[in-house]
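Propose amino acids for all 384 sites.
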């Protein structure tokens, strides 16, 4: 019985993780839940999964939950989320908090020796070197396993392979709702249109990142850290069917690809049961219904976020942090209708251009740079 702590339990990955738990009650049990502000959804999860510890961002919400559930330990604020991430009873932490907020609790979970199933891209984008050093110090690279469908696919393709035999990774992108739009059409995109993803159901932030293709840029940085490959050996292709989740090309010219239904529960189950594979009742891919598999090169002119992500990765140090911070500010502003779709990459590039290079040697430094870049982004938006 694997005991789970789920960070971001009321988000899309958190809910998918709980769906996996409910399918396999003989294998998994939930000992801790951490959520943002969706109190009603969290209440339902408490009733169904009976955790020992619950963390919620707001301290007033924590007080109310504590009154409702006197037999459960309820904690609030970031310290509460860290407590859920390091809960002694938990064997495995599912890190599914969206955005930079997921970094600190994930860092502490790894430092405490927890196995981490990682769905939070920003952890490795912002602090990949620090995180992978922590994993290496544990002496077991499988203490950190990716849940992102693309990185889970690469992980499966590399099982049993010698690292020196890998020529490159190819991350597939659905392209989002606008991959075939012209520059003129992109200028008039609304938040409502951008939130209509053609193949995946995700939270609003990652859905906008998919529309700008920043999501894929972040995944390139994440793949660099997970699989120890340089930027020039990690490529992106547009694959609208979202059937091939990633590919690995080997030095002998052969490829391996991982295919499955667009259902995050498959990747979650893989991470939670690795190195075992178990029988699944989740929807299966019907090859006879796959009419075609298309692959196209992304257009860096219409989607400059890809170029910016590669530039940040190659520059290293503070630049991936600046990229992510400015993107989070820009996406939030776009969702509120304050800026246009094309302003998202423009703001990111401006913030990166105004960021001074420096190495990153501590979590505290990461957080300081993140905060300063967010402030810079808001100043840029405010104008002269």
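Proposal:
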């Amino acid at each position: 019985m694997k005991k789970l702590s789920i960070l971001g339990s009321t988000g899309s990955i958190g809910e998918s993780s709980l769906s996996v738990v409910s399918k396999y009650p003989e294998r998994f049990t939930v000992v801790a839940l951490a959520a943002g502000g969706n109190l009603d959804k969290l209440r339902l999860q408490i009733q169904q999964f009976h955790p020992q510890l619950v963390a919620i961002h707001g301290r007033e919400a924590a007080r109310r939950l504590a009154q409702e559930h006197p037999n459960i330990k309820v904690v609030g604020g970031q310290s509460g989320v860290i407590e859920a991430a390091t809960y002694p009873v938990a064997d495995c932490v599912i890190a599914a908090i969206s955005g930079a907020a997921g970094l600190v609790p994930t860092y502490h979970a790894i430092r405490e020796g927890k196995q981490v199933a990682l769905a939070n891209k920003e952890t490795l984008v912002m602090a990949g070197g620090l995180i992978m050093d922590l994993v290496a110090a544990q002496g077991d690279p499988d203490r950190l396993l990716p849940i992102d469908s693309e990185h889970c696919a690469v992980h499966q393709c590399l099982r049993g392979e010698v690292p020196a035999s890998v020529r490159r990774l190819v991350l597939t992108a659905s392209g989002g709702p606008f991959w075939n739009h012209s520059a003129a059409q992109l200028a008039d995109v609304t938040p409502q249109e951008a939130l209509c993803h053609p193949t995946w159901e995700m939270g609003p932030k990652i859905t906008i990142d998919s529309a700008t293709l920043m999501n894929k840029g972040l995944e390139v940085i994440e793949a660099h850290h997970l699989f120890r490959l340089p930027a020039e050996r990690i490529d992106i292709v547009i694959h609208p069917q979202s059937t091939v989740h990633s590919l690995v090309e080997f030095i002998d010219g052969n490829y391996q690809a991982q295919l499955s239904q667009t259902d995050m529960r498959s990747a979650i189950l893989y991470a939670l049961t690795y190195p075992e594979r178990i029988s699944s009742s989740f929807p299966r891919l019907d090859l006879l219904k796959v009419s075609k598999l298309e692959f196209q090169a992304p257009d860096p002119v219409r989607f400059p976020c890809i170029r910016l992500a590669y530039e940040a990765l190659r520059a290293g140090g503070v630049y991936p942090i600046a990229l992510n911070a400015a993107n989070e500010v820009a996406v939030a502003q776009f969702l509120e209708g304050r800026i246009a779709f094309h302003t998202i990459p423009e703001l990111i590039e401006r913030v990166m251009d105004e960021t001074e290079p420096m190495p990153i040697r501590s979590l505290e430094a990461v957080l300081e740079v993140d905060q300063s870049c967010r402030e810079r982004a808001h100043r840029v938006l405010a104008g002269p």
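The mean pLDDT is 94. DSSP finds 16 helices and eleven strands in the chain.
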